[in-house]
Amino acid sequence: MKLIEVTTPAHQREFIEMAVRLYKNEKNWIRPLDADIEGLFHKETNKLFRNGAKAKRWLLQNDKGETIGRVAAFINPKMKEKQPTGGLGFFECINDQKAAFLLFDTAKAWLESEGMEAMDGPINFGERDKWWGLLVDGFSEPNYNMPWNFPYYQKFFEDYGFQLYFKQFTYMRPVQRLGFDEKMIQRANLIMANPDYSFRYIQGKELQEKAPEYFMTVYNKAWARHMGKSIALKEAQMMFGKMKPIIDPRLIYFAFYKDEPVGFFIQIPEINQIFKHVNGKMDLIGKLKFLWYKTFSPPNKMLGLVFGVVPEHQGKGVESAIIISYDKMSGRDDFPYKTIEMNWIGDFNPKMMRVCEQLLAEIYKTHHTYRYLFDRTKPFERHKIFD
Question: Which residues on adjacent β-strands are paired with residue 308?
Answer without folding.
Answer: 264
